[in-house]
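Lab notebook, page 48
Experiment: co-folding of the full assembly
Goal: obtain a model of how the components sit together before planning crosslinking
Operator: M.T.
Materials (sequences as entered):
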Amino acid sequence: VFLIDGIQTDLIDAGDRGLQYGDGLFETIAVEQGEPQRWPQHMARLQAGCERLGISLPDEQTLLEEARTLCADGRERTVLKVIVTRGSGGRGYRAFAGALSHRILSLHPRPDYPIAWQQEGIRIRVCETRLGLQPALAGLKHLNRLEQVLARSEWDDPDIAEGLMLDVGGRVVEGTMSNLFVVMDGRLVTPSLTNCGVAGIIRQEVMEAARTMGLACSEEELSLDDVEEADELFLTNSLIGVWPVREVEGRTYRVGATSRELAAHVEQVKEA
Amino acid sequence: VFLIDGIQTDLIDAGDRGLQYGDGLFETIAVEQGEPQRWPQHMARLQAGCERLGISLPDEQTLLEEARTLCADGRERTVLKVIVTRGSGGRGYRAFAGALSHRILSLHPRPDYPIAWQQEGIRIRVCETRLGLQPALAGLKHLNRLEQVLARSEWDDPDIAEGLMLDVGGRVVEGTMSNLFVVMDGRLVTPSLTNCGVAGIIRQEVMEAARTMGLACSEEELSLDDVEEADELFLTNSLIGVWPVREVEGRTYRVGATSRELAAHVEQVKEA
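Observation: model returned without errors.
Model output:
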């Protein structure tokens, strides 16, 4: 089900710059009982992204009304995807000055991940596809996602929940669709996103929660060795919340107290 | 005017992975008297790109028939854009195995660049937006083009024909929509495309022509200093052929014999 610039249709203008150049941004939002979760955080990130890319920001009230219209379908748990593109037309890569952005909202079933993944942790792999280094796009949830598509195509095994991605310089950055945290030496570390990666909503929430809990938390460069030696490991995104990691390519981890505490915190925010 | 999977419409499925993830490739093809130019070269590049990304290759005969149908509009000179996306659907970044690609053909007026640009050369600038380093996508004409969009948004001056792009490591790679050649020490050099850049059809043609002419030609890493010290400079793509460069940010160049000879060669191939 799509709502495109307010109209119920699943067709878009083939001249849309989102298709032509990947010229846009998106948000993937958990929906509970028809209500989009963490809406202000998603809108803040979308707004920041539009500013960085020079895309006209859609009216937030309109977006919220459209989101609620689309989400009110009676299902308990769904996923709202909001795409904002720079609009249509222009001359080659050059956009028309003042081009009006397009908003493409769609509602999807929630992926049916096993409950055990949240409780007992997940098995993950290390992807061969690397993330390119591009500070100008780092942190943004933009539509240029070929790297993630290639990385996700590397495995079929349904028991492997996610794949870690390194950048071309060998630093561990994130999962194909999630952010990474490690607990090491009693503190929490998440990879810095200076050169690549997506600055996730839950990533931000976990960093803030850690500070509130008095747990040191920093953004750093991480190597595979750091991951190997970590005490705990977990992944985050808006749909999964927190997934503790119990195995990376044969190396096993315990699901520790820090992971459990932060997972509980994120769950609590969801219910609030 | 669009022809999408053989149907005349300008609307595409909003679930197309080209829009959702930039998951596809494209070709920009000069059309003369209704006939797409350098069709075999464009198809060879498209095929190589589909193989690298694991996208199902559309039937080439079908593509050619559709291209000819679209191009036969009586205009003398037009531009055919062929987009091939991985298709629709899948679960997040993961595509359905065996997904059928979509083909999106569109016909456009030829940009009305001044004739003088070909004869007397162009003025260009150096862009601030850098190209990220990503060997897995280097050379491909894929749909993840945010870097080019950002670079092309840096200037408005219609007298500046193109912008040079450096990679994040400071090497000169290409223009926003063209490949670069320099003549230095009596030989021809074009930047190597190991980490980024698009392997252009005319770039390949010029390299082959140089060899036929007995002119040494190599792919190397180039710095801005190399460009500054070069004897001649020119840019290439399928629509412009060869544009000699007469000025880069105040440094002027003569339009030399090598540029003229290779420009004439490319023009000749066009007419053949």
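Interpretation: The radius of gyration of chain B is 19 Å.
Next step: discuss with group before ordering constructs.
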